[in-house]
Structures are given as structure tokens and as C-alpha cells.
Amino acid sequence: MTQRIGLFFTVSLLRLLAALPYSVCARVGMSLGALLYRIPSRRRSVVQTNLRLCFPDQSEAHRHALGQAHFSHVIRSYLERGVQWYGCAGKLNDLVELESAIELGNTEAGPTIFLGFHFVAIEAGCMFYSIKHPVASLYSKMSNPLLEQLAKRQRARFGTEMIPRNGSVRQALRTLKSGTPLMLAADMDFGLRDSVFVPFFNVAACTLTSVSRLAALSGARVVPFTTSVLPGYRGYKLKIFDALAGYPCGDEKADALRMNAFLEQQVRAMPEQYYWVHRRFKHRPEGEAPVY
User: Fold this and answer.
1) What does the alpha-carbon distance between residue 93 and residue 124 come to, in Å, rounded to a whole number?
2) Is the pLDDT of residue 106 over 90?
3) Strands 236-240, 221-229: parallel, antiparallel or unpaired by DSSP?
């Protein structure tokens, strides 16, 4: 019952936020995030630990400012789920700028894996793409089944085929071979299974090898993309890069290292927008102490 009441208020709030002007919603989110960063919390501690590990040469004051800016973007992104999940297609379409190095919707290019990363605006970019072209997406299960159903339903509202991350590999392969691109993100610590330790900002990070294995099995090209928050409360920019040449290379560890190196380059361009609230270094190589 408690979960159902919580879901009712969540949906009501998101619908209300969808009705507000985008800039109002974004400004409220930024201010609320800055306020919440002042309150000691487990998530703030995770952010501070991640920034200390990844930017050891920066001053404590600089990392504090970066952490506050990040918290503002994270809370803003939660509020912006309103327009992403309940706003009309036209409103979302107007908020996203597209820059693509490849021709989109070209089924003759063969199977395509769109490799995303957990920047705060990833949801907006994925949903914008689904308005334009057929696509499938891997999703992770949530601890709250009602919230998971809500997220799955709203993310699929423009026709996205939702595939559980721990579901059938065959389903993902069928989707790719049918000509429908598959969107996924592999930059989180999902545990030691099907993962290797490779550097991320010179810190050993437990990194999934699923991207290179799925690409090898399907013959798919791997096309990275990022979605960034534009300044001046103008919306977002979806940037789609060229396919990674020679990927996969036949060495899963080398592929994981290359993926992390590409991600690190993007993070350096907009460090406040990467999801530092996640415990990216949750699992440690044998013999190393926990960091959180």
C-alpha cells in the first residue's frame, strides 16, 4: 500500500512538472540540488569519494564546487523526468539539438548498438531518438517493482522495445538482426560476473564486457552517443559519434579499456554532468580495500 501511495504522488508530481515551462522546472531542480548538497548524506559521500579518486590533483575547494554543481544537475534531471515521461512528443522534440556523424534510420548499415553513458541527460536523448526512429533499449531492474513498471512504460511510450538487462541474450540478438538498433549503457559496476578491471581515471574499475561480446555475436557496429545539458536552460544536445573502428577487437579487456578511455574523454568535457552519485568503484580487485 505504501508503495502504491508513493507511486501516486510520484506520477502526480511528474505530470505537474510536465505542465510547467521547461526553464522553470530546470531552475527549481538546480536550486534544490544545490540546497540538498549542503546536507550530509550517503549520496553526497559517494560523490565526494568518486571525485577525490578521479581528480586527485584538484583542490578540495574545486572538488566541492564540482560536487555541488553535479548534485544540482542530478536533482534537476529527476524533475525533468516530468517532461521526458509525460510531455508531448513536440515539446521534447523542441528541446533537443541533434548532431550525428552517421546517417540515422539507415537499416542498410547493418545491426547497430548505440553505446550510451550515464550523463544526467541520457534519458532525454534516448527518448528523443525513439520519437524519430524505431529502437530497443536495455533496462536494469529496480528494487521497487511499481516504479520499475512506471519507468518501463513511460520510456516505451514512443515505441521503444524494452529488454531487461538480465534477460535473454537471444532477444537482444533477434532485435539487432531484425534491423532495430539497440541502446545500452555499460559504464556502471554491475558486479564481477562478465566484467574485467580496467582503468577509469587511473582507478581500476569493474567494467562490463557485454558490449564487445554482443557486438561480436551479432556483427553489429558500436556507435557511441552522449546527451548533454545545454547552457541557458535551452534543453539538451544529443551527439552521435562515428562507429568505433575495429571494435570489437577480439580481446574483451582491450575493448573495455577502449570504452573507458572514450568515456573519460567525454567526462572531462562536462564533469559536472556525469553520474558521480553511482558507486562506480563498488567492487575492488582482490586485495584492495573498499573505497566507500
Assistant:
1) 10
2) no
3) antiparallel
Place of cell 537499416: 107
Largest pairwise CA distance in the chain:
53
Q: How far apart are CA 203 and CA 200, in angstroms?
A: 5
3-state SS track over the chain: CHHHHHHHHHHHHHHHHHHCCHHHHHHHHHHHHHHHHCCCCHHHHHHHHHHHHHCCCCCHHHHHHHHHHHHHHHHHHHHCHHHHHHCCHHHHHHHEEEEECCCCCCHHHCCEEEEECCECCHHHHHHHHHHHCCCEEEECCCCCHHHHHHHHHHHCCCCCEEEECCCCHHHHHHHHHCCCCEEEECCCCCCCCCEEEEEECCEEEEEECHHHHHHHHHCCEEEEEEEEECHHHCCEEEEECCCCCCCCCCCHHHHHHHHHHHHHHHHHHCHHHECCCCCCCCCCCCCCCCCC
The structural domains of the chain, with segments of one domain joined by +, span 2-273
pLDDT of 167 higher than 80: no
Distances (CA, A) of 5 to 53, 134, 146, 147: 39, 34, 11, 11
* Distances in whole angstroms, Cα of residue 108 to Cα of each of 36, 65, 104, 111, 161: 48, 47, 11, 9, 20
The string of pLDDT tens digits covering residues 173-204 is: 999 999 999 999 999 999 999 999 999 999 99
Q: Write phi, then psi, for 196 (nearest 5 degrees).
A: -135, 160
